[in-house]
Specification:
Blueprint lengths: L5 E2 L9 H10 L17 H18 L5 E6 L2 H13 L5 E5 L2 H10 L5 E6 L23 E4 L1 E2 L4 E2 L10 E4 L16 E5 L10 E6 H4 L12 H6 L9 H17 L1 H22 L3 E2 L11 E6 L5 H10 L2 E2 L10 E4 L6 H18 L4
Parallel strand pairs: 1-13, 3-4, 3-5, 5-8, 8-9
Antiparallel strand pairs: 2-10, 6-7, 9-10, 11-12, 12-14
Length: 361
């Protein structure tokens, strides 16, 4: 049994080792002998840290002053309701459904606005994207919503859809994994617990024109504009989660920023997909051009081998490889903190497991 653990969880997911080390060293004394676990969000020390963390995220994603950056609670799922409440005035919004999370977002959105499903990939079991020429787009929609990556089914849209209304993107599992053009989007949101830190924090990046002087019918706590004016401190902030995110932003910058991070993530995905495609007992169902870099589901030809695979992998330090309960099989989630060595070790184990079970499939 190995001592080295590689955590392939879809989220909450692995943190960089150096970030964990920093947390250990700083947790007892963040400010004047007080722990970051007990510090006030309105203390001068944390306000300074919050400003620095926002500036680092702006530098990573090249976010200009046209956008507000919000550090909110409630998880990404809360944004499924907060979005239509804040942004839908024409009582119409377009939703592209490519997996379980965008389907859930559309369902939540329907409580607040008239949701138009422009396309739904459920008819192909979320393995590919229907051609844009078949989409029923509404040019009068208030916004176009999609999830660039579906963590459960492993389908990723690698290019921003070409539509004529403000684009909203759930980037929970891809944010800061590679460079993006922030100006393509009206609003981006992401739960932190995959690439940015731990659960309890959701980052929202919103074009100011989209949120200013809007949603006056809502209480202040539900309005993006109010949170922006209060610098995400309208109410008690998720201090520790924000602190961890700040450490992760610094770590990504130290790795060389998003260009370097993107090159590493692309290589990790390439290695695992090539092995799966060349193997005798493993397969991935997603059309190649829509395969996710972050979440790679794979199926063993004989499903009766699943439990043996998971048990043996765990003993080798390869943890949390079980696929989502609605899909089955396996899933390797390889966010920023997963080193390429972990992916190579997974491939070595999969190869060994295959060699021992070729006669059983």
């Amino acid at each position: 049994m190995t001592n080295k653990i590689y955590n392939f969880s879809a989220g909450p997911s692995a943190l960089p080792e150096s970030v964990i080390d920093t947390i250990k060293s700083e947790i007892n004394n963040f400010d004047q002998g007080m722990s970051v676990l007990e510090i006030s969000h309105r203390s001068s020390a944390f306000k300074k840290y919050a400003d620095e963390s926002e500036e680092n995220l702006r530098n990573l994603l090249n976010i200009n002053s046209d956008y507000s950056v919000l550090f909110l609670q409630g998880g990404a799922t809360h944004q499924f309701s907060m979005l239509p409440q804040n942004l839908s005035y024409k009582e119409s919004a377009d939703y592209l459904v490519t997996g379980a999370w965008s389907a859930k977002a559309a369902d939540y959105g329907s409580y607040h606005t008239s949701v138009n499903i422009v396309s739904n990939s459920i008819n192909n079991n979320y393995t590919t994207l229907n051609d844009i020429t078949s989409w029923s787009l509404n040019d009068d929609a208030e916004y176009f919503y999609y999830a660039s990556n579906e963590t459960i089914h492993g389908l990723e849209i690698h290019e921003t859809p070409a539509v004529n209304v403000p684009i909203i993107n759930d980037m929970s599992s891809t944010i800061c994994s590679r460079p993006i053009n922030i100006n393509d989007y009206g609003l981006i949101f992401a739960g932190a617990q995959k690439n940015l830190g731990i659960a309890g924090l959701t980052v929202v990046i919103a074009n100011n024109d989209l949120i200013e002087n809007k949603a006056k019918n809502l209480p202040p706590i539900s309005r993006y504009e109010t949170h922006a004016k209060e610098k995400s401190m309208l109410n008690t902030s998720p201090v520790f989660a924000w602190y961890v995110a700040g450490l992760v932003f610094k770590w990504i910058l130290e790795q060389g920023g998003l260009k370097t991070m993107g090159e590493i993530n692309k290589e990790k995905a390439k290695l695992l997909y090539e092995f799966i495609d060349d193997s005798s007992i493993y397969s991935n169902p997603v059309e190649k051009k829509y395969r996710s870099w972050m979440n790679i589901p794979f199926i063993i030809k004989d499903a009766s081998l699943d439990e043996s695979f998971l048990c043996e992998a765990s003993k080798e330090g390869l943890k949390n490889l079980k696929g989502h309960r609605t899909v089955g099989g396996m899933r390797a989630s390889m966010y920023n903190a997963m080193p390429i060595e972990g992916v190579k070790k997974l491939i070595d184990f999969m190869d060994y497991f295959q060699s021992r079970n070729l006669n059983n499939v």
